[in-house]
Amino acid sequence: MQLNDKTIIITGGCQGLGRAMAEYLAAKGARLALVDLSPEKLDAAVAACRAAGGEARAYLCNIANEEQVMQMVDQVAKDFGAINGLVNNAGILRDGLTVKVKDGELSTLSLAQWQAVIDVNLTGVFLCTREVAAKMIELGNRGAIVNISSISRAGNMGQANYSAAKAGVAADTVVWAKELARYGIRVAAIAPGFIETEMTASMRPEALDKMTAGIPLKRMGKPAEIAHAATFIFENDYFTGRILELDGGLRL
Ligand SMILES: NC(=O)c1ccc[n+]([C@@H]2O[C@H](COP(=O)([O-])OP(=O)(O)OC[C@H]3O[C@@H](n4cnc5c(N)ncnc54)[C@H](O)[C@@H]3O)[C@@H](O)[C@H]2O)c1
C-alpha cells in the first residue's frame, strides 16, 4: 500500500514510538489520526506531523474504554472519510515479581497491576482492532493493522502482566490476519527489543546498562528504526500474520 494520502490511526501517538511512527508516516504523505490521553502532548505531536509533511488530527481516547474507542473510530471516519490503517501502539508497564520475598517480607503483584496492563495492552488492542476493522469493511477500505508486541512476549521476569498481554497480541495478530484477509486487511506485528523512549528511560540505570551489555549490537534500538519497520509492513502487500523481531539480536 502506498502511504500517500492514506489515513492511519496511531494509538499512543503523542510520545515515544507512537510519535516517531507518526512523524515517519507523515513524511510519506500519510494522514494521521493520533490517539492518546494528553491534549498538550497530542497538540505537539500533531504540529510535528504537519511540519513533517502530513495531515494530522488529535483524538483524546482511553483505548481500554469500549465506548470511547467506538466514538473515536466513528469520528476519525467522519473527519477523514476513510481509514486505511491502524498502529496498536499504546501500552503501559506495571512491573513486579508475582511473588517476592525481600528481607523476610513477602509481597505479591496486585490484581490492579495485573488488570491495568491487560486492560490497555491486550483489551485495548482488541477493541481498536475490532472497531477499525469493522469501519474499514463498512467503508470498503483496504489496508493494514500493525500491532506492537514486545520481545517480552517470550516471558520476562517481573512482567507476568506485560508478557501475557504481548504474547496475546502476537497470537491475535495471526488470528486477525486469517480472519481479515478476505476483506483486504493485513495484520502484522513488530516485537521490539529495548528502544530509546520515555518507557525505557524510566528503567533503573543499572538495569539498563546490564541489559544493553547483553544485546549483540551493544545498543538500544532507535524509535526511527521501529517506524521504518512499521512502514515496511504498510507498504509490503504480501506481509501478513507475521511478527518482525527488532531487537538487535537479543532473545529472551
Ligand atoms: N520502548 C521500548 O523499549 C519498547 C519495547 C517493546 C515494546 N514496546 C511497546 O511499544 C509501545 C510504545 O512504547 P513507548 O516506549 O513509546 O511507550 P511510551 O510510554 O513512551 O508511550 C506510550 C504512549 O501510550 C499512551 N497510552 C498509555 N495508555 C493509554 C490508553 N489507555 N489510551 C490511550 N493512550 C495510552 C501514553 O500516554 C503514551 O503516550 C508500547 O506498546 C510498548 O509496550 C516498547
Descriptive report:
The protein is of the alpha/beta class. The chain has one domain (7-245): NAD(P)-binding Rossmann-like Domain (Rossmann fold), CATH 3.40.50.720. Helices cover 46% and strands 19% of the residues. It has helices at 16-27, 39-52, 66-80, 111-139, 160-180, 198-201, 205-213, 223-235; strands spanning 7-11, 31-36, 55-60, 85-88, 99-102, 105-108, 143-148, 185-192, 243-246. The strands form 2 sheets. A 7-stranded parallel beta sheet has the order 3-2-1-4-7-8-9, with helices on both faces. Strands 5-6 form a two-stranded antiparallel ribbon. α1 (16-27) links the parallel β1 and β2 (31-36). α1 (16-27) packs parallel to α2, α1 (16-27) packs across α8 and α3 (66-80) packs parallel to α4 (111-139). The protein starts with 6 loop residues before the first strand and ends in a 6-residue tail after the last strand. The model has no long low-confidence stretch (mean pLDDT 97). Residues 11-12, 14-18, 35-37, 62-64, 89-92, 120, 124, 148, 150, 192, 194-195, 197-200 line the site of nicotinamide-adenine-dinucleotide.
Tally of strands: 9
* Gap from first CA to last CA: 33 Å
Sequence stretches where pLDDT stays below 50 over 5 or more residues: none
Name the ligand types. Answer: nicotinamide-adenine-dinucleotide
| Spatial extent as radius of gyration | 18 Å
Q: Give average pLDDT, whole number.
A: 97
Number of helices: 8
What count of structural domains?
Answer: 1
CATH H-tier superfamily: NAD(P)-binding Rossmann-like Domain
EC number: 1.3.1.58
GO molecular function, one term: oxidoreductase activity, acting on the CH-OH group of donors, NAD or NADP as acceptor
Family: Belongs to the short-chain dehydrogenases/reductases (SDR) family.
Enzyme class: oxidoreductase
